[in-house]
Write a structure and sequence with these properties.
The chain has helices at 9-25, 70-73, 79-90, 95-115, 118-131, 133-146, 150-160, 174-195, 200-217, 227-246, 250-262, 266-269, 277-298, 303-316, 319-327, 335-346, 350-363, 372-384, 388-401, 405-418, 421-436, 441-455, 458-465, 471-481, 486-500, 506-526, 529-542, 547-555, and strands at residues 31-36, 40-46, 50-57, 63-67. It is mainly α. 30% of the residues are buried. 70% of the residues lie in helices and 5% in strands. Strand 3 (50-57) and strand 4 form a beta hairpin.
Length: 558
């Protein structure tokens, strides 16, 4: 049964893993203070300490868990999150009532605050400021911004971006990065307020200083979740906003942009010169070109210099110059041909675009690591104009250059659309069989088995699997054939169980139970249930010391 947040026990198990999920079962009685709102759940779980847990929805309707226990602070969906989730599921009938109560309490608080006299409201706020340094810091920054006290604003912004309070050993660890990002985001909010007002010019300069500060310290932060990187991109957005409002000197702006883009700091902010074309105007773009050309002469093979020139030409809007720049350094994978084709197509020059894409295909026809996006681009354009036979030819060439299940599937789709799959399949399967018998059998053998399985040709897949199939493929074969080839499937299940007898862990025990259930089904088809009973009895006797395994088998009726 799923909660109104849209999750079920299986979702909790998938997020936490079997170990944390089982441990969470032991904390159901330790959950207190459960509150349920619109898309969020909070509670306290009493373990070694009292831990605060919050469950929320992500953008796709899934569940996110946040807990301040050490394991949760490392980004894991911990046992405390499991306990809260399970508690909600067991109280599903009460969710509407609890949610209504939360709405009622919120509305009551709002009404009370609105009714408070001004002096009492100020006293309440001062009381909170006295105990909450973060709130005081945010309000001080807002006050300084409101009175245009730029010295105080700068000091507060730089304080918010200072990593030292979060760096225990000279480095901001993963569990502290989120708190630092939340604090740094306050600096972005303050700068954004300045950027859209009459202090935009000061915001330009302060945003640049903030960008430099964050970029220089980013290497000292474990930003695995990308939260600090988001702050960097937000700073870049604020800088662009401020420039759009203040319209600073275009030549000076171009000089700052070029210095920043040629440094090793832009990977944090991801500033793109193209976004500044209106801010720069003809004067700024001309100055940027002077600087970019000089940088290219100093380092003709430098990646940053090359990328700067490409983005500059893109900002200038000269498609032919951009194509010439790309064409001077074509990638052997066809990726540059694709970029050229897409630029030409965006400019309304579809015929030239397809011509460049076709040139890329010819250049990479026998290249194993060719860019598949180029192939997709050409095939899509061919299909749109009814050139189905040519789509098949392109997919065939790609399959022979790089034999993989994905290439085989794409060839099949194209050939079925053209009505020639039977002949194409015979040739493709024969090519895979030839490769499977050659020096690279360890690679092409499994591809052959996957292709036959994907076609539903189980008999051929069983034959091809001998000597080259991996464990996953054997299991797939057995599962799909246990009704028609129970003896063959049974042999696979029993073989896969053997190495698991030497392992421990809940995941292993679940797999053993799954294989045993499949083996029992095979014995039932063969009419040899007695043999299965004897096998199971022996297995349980040999594994009797694994209490969790015995418990798992009992749960599955084994």
């Amino acid at each position: 049964m799923a909660s109104e947040l849209g999750f079920a026990e299986d979702d909790l198990l998938a997020l936490a893993g079997e170990r944390s999920f089982e441990r969470g079962l032991g904390y159901l009685d330790a959950v207190s203070g459960l509150e349920i709102g619109d898309g969020w759940i909070t509670a306290t779980v009493h373990g070694t300490e009292a831990y605060e847990v919050e469950l929320t929805e992500d953008e796709e309707g899934g569940i996110l868990g946040d807990c301040d226990c050490p394991y949760g602070q490392e980004g894991h969906f911990c046992k405390h999150c499991v306990a809260v989730g399970l508690t909600v599921l067991r109280q599903a009938s009460a969710i509407p009532r609890q949610r209504a109560a939360a709405v009622k309490w919120t509305a009551g608080l709002e009404t009370w605050l609105q009714a408070l006299p001004h002096d009492e409201l100020l006293a309440l706020l001062r009381e909170q400021i006295a105990h909450d340094r973060g709130l005081r810091r945010r309000l001080e920054l807002r006050a300084a911004s409101a009175r245009s006290d730029m010295a105080v604003v700068r000091e507060r912004v730089m304080t918010l971006l200072d990593v030292r309070p979060f760096a225990r050993y000279g480095y901001v660890e993963y569990q502290d990065a989120g708190a630092y990002a939340a604090q740094a985001a306050e600096a972005v909010d303050a700068l954004r307020a300045l950027a859209s007002g009459d202090r935009a010019q000061e915001a330009v300069l302060l945003a640049r200083e903030a960008i430099q500060t964050l970029s220089q310290t980013y290497g000292e932060i474990d930003d695995s979740d990308g939260a600090v990187g988001d702050v960097g991109r937000d700073l870049a957005e604020v800088h662009l906003l401020a420039c759009g409002t203040a319209r600073p000197d275009p030549a000076e702006t171009a000089e700052w942009l070029v210095r920043h883009l040629l440094s090793d700091l832009n990977y944090v902010t991801d500033i793109d010169l193209v976004d500044y074309r209106k801010v720069l105007g003809p004067t700024g773009l001309a100055r940027a070109r002077e600087l970019a050309a000089a940088a290219r002469r100093r380092a003709p093979n430098g990646w940053a210099e090359k990328n700067l020139m490409e983005r500059l030409v893109k900002a200038e809007g000269n498609v032919d110059a951009l194509i010439a720049l790309y064409a001077a350094d074509l990638s052997p994978t066809g990726a540059t041909h694709l970029r050229i084709a897409m630029e030409l197509e965006a400019a309304g020059r579809e015929v030239e675009a397809l011509d460049w894409a076709e040139r890329g295909l010819r250049a990479t026809r026998k290249t194993e690591n060719a860019d598949d996006r180029l192939t997709d681009y050409v095939c899509t354009r061919y299909a749109q104009t009814g050139r189905t036979a040519e789509v098949v030819a392109v997919r065939r060439d790609r399959f022979h250059a790089h034999r993989s299940l994905a290439a085989y599937q794409l060839l099949r789709t194209a050939a079925e659309a053209a009505g020639c799959w039977k002949a194409e399949r015979e040739a493709a399967v024969e090519a895979l069989r030839t490769d499977a018998r050659g020096r690279h059998s360890s690679w092409y053998g499994p591809v052959l088995v996957d292709a036959l399985l994907d076609d539903g040709d189980l008999d051929a897949a069983w034959q091809a699997a001998q000597g080259c199939a991996d464990e996953r493929q054997w299991l797939t074969l057995a599962d799909r054939s246990k009704d028609t080839r129970p003896a063959d499937a049974l042999a696979v299940y029993l073989r896969l169980i053997e190495p698991l007898k030497k392992k421990t862990g809940d995941r292993t025990y679940q797999q053993v139970a799954r294989l045993l259930l499949a083996a029992r089904s095979c014995h039932q088809h063969l009419g040899t249930e007695g043999e299965f009973t004897a096998y199971l009895t022996t297995l349980r006797g040999d594994q009797r010391r694994k209490r969790n395994l015995m418990k798992t088998l009992d749960q599955h009726g084994l």
